[in-house]
Every structure is written in structure tokens, then in C-alpha cells.
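Example 5.3 — Tyrosine recombinase xerC-like protein
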Amino acid sequence: MTKLNIQEYTTKAGEKGYILKGAYIGVDSLTGKQKRTSIRGRTKTEVKLKFDRKRREFEANGNTTKRASDTTFEDFAVMWFDRHKLTIKPNTVQFTETILNIYLIPQFKGIKISKVTSAMIQEAVHKWQANASQPLNGRKRRKKGHSCKVDVFVRTLKAIFNHAIANGLIENNPCNNIIVPKIKLESTDKEIKFFTKQELDTFLEHMNKLPKNNFRNERMLSLTHLLAFSGLRVGEAMALTWEDIDFEAGTLSVSKTAVNSTIQESVKSDKGNRVVLIDPKTLDVLKHWKTVCKRFMLRLGNGAQPLVFPHIRGGVQDYKGLHYSLEKHCKRANVPYIGFHGFRHTHASMLFSAGATPKEAQDRLGHANIATTMNIYTHLTKENRVNVLDKLEKYISA
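Solution (predicted C-alpha cells):
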């Protein structure tokens, strides 16, 4: 056992006393930080006894500054989130933070975590369900605080209370018997946007007619062409480096994604890690862009850039800032604005038109769940639906 450094001191009244400064008693289970304490006594024995009692209290509660029963739901939820966010992706961090700040913390604010009951949680679930079920009244999106992700709220609550159990604050999880009723939702009629083949040709023709001595024009042309003919997510494309492209083999490797202005060394799902075959025309577009990009970067003094689609000043380009430019080009080309994700849907539509199976499309697009692929499959162009009907009629009459 470590010898305690108990020192003698004299009080202002001239009396002799003893003090133990900064003695280590363990790691706080709530904060993950080392806990130290200072103890005074009239004798060394008294100081030792006080220290032993303090250490036993710490071992029993895991927290010397606040008893378990005094910890509020809000305080513990924030501490849980501070740890949990280190294990999840940036987009999930933002989503979880929204759930906490808009739904969970306001609902249980000021309540001790040991006092949150199953009845309270069930009441909250019914309230969230009622809000989510309200009519949209012509709106395309639900109002703030009216999310339909009630099952996700309950899963998040369950994780928080499981962590509270692990830290000795409570004995049972009040979420265990919670019922999440099926929510009757008014459809938002979210349309899957994509170009028909003719619209894609019109858009690319417009982009090819733009002045060539312009970094942003050239980058937009190359980016949208790649998205349309590879099916990449825009974040995956913005994270590509030239090393990811094998011009000899005609492939590109997808293993990371851009989130805001940073590169995340993982994609949306395990299926997202993939090698995509690229057609010769798209390879030519990329080769041309590589030459153009290098010339612009050297002219601007930014040097060689490893990224395929960098910011004009070098580094990662936040693609959210490119939406306005894309919308402008769609308007000038007289085609509907489909957003960057619409090019991915366009590629899926072309795959199905070419006869690809849903499984083949799933592998190429990197969908974790084939249901996502099938959802896009049902939104073929009118021309394709007519073609399917023609095939059926020919089969029946044969």
C-alpha cells in the first residue's frame, strides 16, 4: 500500500493539525477523470480513518461529489453522450445530439435519473407519437419536435439507462417494457429525383458548352459526370484521391467519405467499401480533369492535390456549398433540379434500364440493404414502365 504523505501544520489559532493533500482515491465512473481529495484532522490516525472512509464511499458510489440518487437525467445524458460520440460517425453524432436536445432532455429535465419511471417514458412515447401523427397541412416536412423516429428515441433512452446501471446509479432499466405503437403517418410523398437519359444528355451538353478556362465549371462537369456514370454518393466522390483511381484497370476504390470539410475514413456501411468499374468515357473525363486541376492548383500556388475534387484553394471542398451552383446549371440547362443525390438515382435508373438485377445494382451502389435498391427500382421512368409492359404483352402473346 502506498504510504500516505500526511503533513503537520499549524492553524491560525496556533493549534497543531495534520493534512493529507491531493490523495488519489480512484477514477470517477461518471466523468472518467482521476479523483483526488484533501483531508484534515487533529491526529495522523484521524486523517487516515477519514481517508479510508472517503475511499470506501467512492468505491461504493463510483462518485464522491454527487450521490447516485442526486444525479439528474440531463447531467447523466450529457456525460453519456460525451463518451458515446467518440464511438460513432459525425452524422450520427449530430443526429443523436438533436434527439437529446429536442426530445429527451426537455422531457426529463430536472428529474433525478433514479426517479425516471416506465410510466413517465410511456407517457412521453404517446406524446411523441401524437405529435408525429399530426397532419402535414400541405407541408413537405414535419415541424420541429414532430419527428416520427420514436423507436430511435426509445433505443437512445435505453442505452442511457443501461449506462446508468453499469455505473451503479439505478438497478433496472425503465425502458425494458416500453411499448412503441405503430405511428399512422401522413405520407410526405417524398419523390425520388433523377434524370431521364434525355435529361442527363441535355444537362451534360450544357456543362460541356461552358467556358473551359474556369475551375468551378470544369470541376462541376467532371463531378456530375462521375456521379451519373458510377453511382457514387457525393460524399464518397469528394473524398476520392487520385490513388483511388486505377486508370489501367478502369476501376476506382471507395473506402472513405467527406463530411462537411473533413475526410471520414469509413463509408456509410460495410457494403459501401467497394471497387467500382468505370466506363472508358468517364475515365477520359477524369484524365482530362486531372490535367486541368493540376494546372489550376499550380497557377494558384496550391501545389499538387491528392484529392480528385479539391477546394479551389486546396483541401476538402464542402459539397453543401456547391448545391446553389448545381441548381443554377440545372435551371440554365432547362432540366429539373435533382440535387447531387439525384445523380446516384439516375445511375440506378440506367442500371435497371440496361437490365441489371437488383442484387447487381445493390453491389455497385453500395446499399447495405437491398430494400433501398428495390425502392429506387419502383421509381423507374415512364418510358421504362411502358417497356416492361411491352415485354409482358409479348411474353403473354407468344
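Remark. Residues 246 and 252 are 6 Å apart (CA to CA).
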